[in-house]
């Protein structure tokens, strides 16, 4: 499924991905960009989905500017800001996506684990950030990989984002970054792209450093029982 919630960018169900002999369950884990522009139809869809939890990976400054529209939906909102420093700082440092994702995984590991624990608490659950690409991509990618989803399916789910971002939004964001940082090499990737190589590099980093995505979660406090539960929740 692609953008099925009216007003939410890059909203999709991660169900149906191959995981060994199984597949990820539909209607359990969703991912998207922010919910600031969700309209009445979008609220009705979220209600129909039965959404119970929202894991919001944005920081306080982003929440202040773009508050989520959830109306009276019976959802628990969990905030786990994943960037150490501001979004602007990554553009200022001209990080590559590979560097950014490694940094999120390593420097914000406790919050990545807390966000993935949120998936275990209530379902259906939505994980989102501002555009649903980087912080959401890292968190959902690690959760799926740890649950046993085939690595190339994790990569493909991440890579879908690029085709779901509005062209007008991309042009505006890129123009603003170029005005501030005209020499940046990585601006377009950071602002608008989700190339398969970036997720492959993150998964390779987790494999090389921790043995696997599940090993990464274990190293940062998740129990074997929680990882087993993640597999039960996400894979049928």
Outline of the structure:
The protein is α/β, with parallel strands linked by helices and 236 residues long. The mean pLDDT is 94.
SSE topology:
Elements: E1 12-13, E2 18-19, E3 22-23, E4 29-32, H1 40-49, E5 53-56, H2 60-65, E6 76-79, H3 87-93, H4 97-107, H5 109-121, E7 125-128, H6 135-146, H7 151-159, H8 167-180, H9 187-192, H10 196-210, H11 213-219, H12 224-234
Parallel strand pairs: 4-7, 5-6, 5-7
Antiparallel strand pairs: 1-4, 2-3
Helix pairs in contact: 4-10, 5-12, 6-7, 6-11, 7-10, 10-11
Structure commentary:
The protein is of the alpha/beta class. The protein has helices at 40-49, 60-65, 87-93, 97-107, 109-121, 135-146, 151-159, 167-180, 187-192, 196-210, 213-219, 224-234, and strands at residues 12-13, 18-19, 22-23, 29-32, 53-56, 76-79, 125-128. The strands form two sheets. The protein has a five-stranded mixed beta sheet, with helices on one face. Helix 5 (109-121) packs across helix 12, helix 7 runs antiparallel to helix 10 (196-210) and helix 10 crosses helix 11 (213-219). The radius of gyration is 17 Å and the shape is globular. The model has no long low-confidence stretch (mean pLDDT 94).
Helical content class: 40-55%
Q: How far apart lie the N and C ends? A: 18 Å
Silhouette: globular
Task: Note the run of SSEs as H and E.
Answer: EEEEHEHEHHHEHHHHHHH
Oligomer: single chain
Beta percentage is: 5-15%
Count all strands and give the number: 7
What does the largest sheet look like? 5 strands, mixed
**Radius of gyration from the alpha-carbon trace, in angstroms:** 17 Å
Strand arrangement in the largest pleated sheet: 1-4-7-5-6
How large is the count of helical segments?
A: 12
Mean pLDDT: 94
Low-pLDDT stretches:
none
Structure class: alpha/beta
GO molecular function: protein tyrosine phosphatase activity
Keywords: Hydrolase
InterPro entries: Prot-tyrosine_phosphatase-like (IPR029021), Tyr/Ser_Pase_IphP-type (IPR026893), Tyr_Pase_AS (IPR016130), Tyr_Pase_dom (IPR000387)
Domain Tyrosine specific protein phosphatases: 110-155
């Amino acid at each position: 499924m692609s953008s099925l919630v009216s007003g939410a960018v890059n909203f999709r169900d991660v169900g149906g991905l191959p995981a060994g002999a199984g597949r990820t369950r539909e209607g359990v884990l969703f991912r998207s960009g922010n919910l600031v522009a969700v309209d009445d139809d979008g609220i009705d869809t979220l209600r129909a989905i039965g959404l119970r939890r929202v894991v919001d990976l944005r920081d306080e400054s982003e929440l202040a500017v773009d508050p989520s529209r959830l109306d009276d939906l019976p959802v628990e909102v969990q905030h786990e800001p994943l960037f150490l420093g501001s979004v602007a700082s990554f553009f200022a440092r001209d990080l590559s996506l590979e560097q950014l994702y490694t940094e999120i995984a390593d420097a914000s590991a406790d919050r990545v684990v807390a966000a993935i624990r949120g998936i275990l608490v209530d379902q259906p659950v939505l994980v989102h950030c501002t555009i649903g690409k980087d912080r959401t991509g890292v968190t959902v990618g690690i959760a799926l990989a740890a649950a046993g989803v085939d690595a190339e399916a994790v990569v493909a789910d991440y890579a879908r984002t690029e085709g779901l971002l509005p062209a007008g939004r991309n042009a505006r964001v890129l123009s603003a970054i170029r005005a501030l940082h005209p020499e940046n090499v990585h601006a377009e990737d950071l602002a608008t792209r989700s190339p398969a190589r970036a997720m492959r590099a993150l998964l390779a980093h987790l494999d090389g450093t921790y043995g696997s995505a599940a090993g990464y979660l274990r190293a940062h406090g998740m129990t074997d029982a929680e990882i087993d539960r993640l597999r039960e929740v996400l894979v049928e």
